[in-house]
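Reviewer 2 asked us to include a model.

Predict the structure of this chain.
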Amino acid sequence: MNRTTLCLAAKRFLPAKVGSRRITVTCRLLFMELIEHTRNNAVCWPSMRYLADRIGTTPRTLQNHLGLLGQIGVVRVESRPGQSSLYTVSREVMDFVRTFSAATYEKFSGTYENSSPRILKKVKNQDSPLPPAPAAAKSTPPVQASGRGGAFLTSPSQNQKRIAAFHELWAAYPLKQGHDVALRLFLSLDHARRLPAMETLLAAIAAMKEHDSRWQRGKIPLLHRWLREGRWLDQPFSEQIKSPSGSLTVAVEAPSDPRIASLQKQIAKLTSASPVTNHAVLDPKFNELWESWGLKQARSAALNYWVGLSEASKERVFNDAIDFIKSQPVSWPLFPTWLRQNA
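Predicted model (structure tokens):
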């Protein structure tokens, strides 16, 4: 079953909207996958995980789209205990797919021109003195890569370079979990030109592994979250611990590698020139809390949450944060996490 038949079926039987809900590209891809797996039998039973891996999304998202397809009446879902669900494509859709697939097969197999009375046969001049026209050079089709925000087209060479760059980043990252999600997000961010140079990412990971006490204790975020939140701008955190004598000591020393020191200077320069810092200057309370906070990471998330608070909430949270800072905690949480818990 060719892709053209599936696209035409999705275009013919799926509307643009169902009520106030829009039929997205993911919903159309799910409809096409179900038709393809029926193999002209109108029934299939692939698992949600298999379909999600084929399309590049999550099973929960596909379950929401199955409800839309059921409202339209093109797919019926039957739950089976202990097994994958049974999907039945409507008769109208299957009749259209069978008819169009047969016509396409006749056209490209050579029987379409001889058997169809609707097409006028072209009379070919076998005695033409002209040489046959040269065959057109075949161009390499673009490869479709699905990102988090949708699908985009890229050439095979560009896609291979991006995948190779991600594998280099994956090899350097200490937490090997969430590979597929991180790969899709990396391709999407790199296509949108929202990632710095690979040297900057690798140097930031090396600095955090060597000098951040939270990373050394195993508190490492997943790679896709690290990329989505722009955590390459984080500064290594030196957690304070209590020595046997009762005094506070620093668990991690300042970085001695000149490359890491220069990277921290670049990060500080980028942070001072970012719109988030300019916005924070307008709110002196947030500035004061951020300068006094022990763990200076995830500044953008903290500022976005702070801006959404009311003036009364800001005053109350500010006083609570001052009391928390004066208590000199041994373990500092992330500032946005503390805000969500105490706002």
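Confidence is low (pLDDT under 50) at residues 108-128, 142-153, 247-254, 273-281. Residues 274-343 form one domain. We have added this to the supplementary material.
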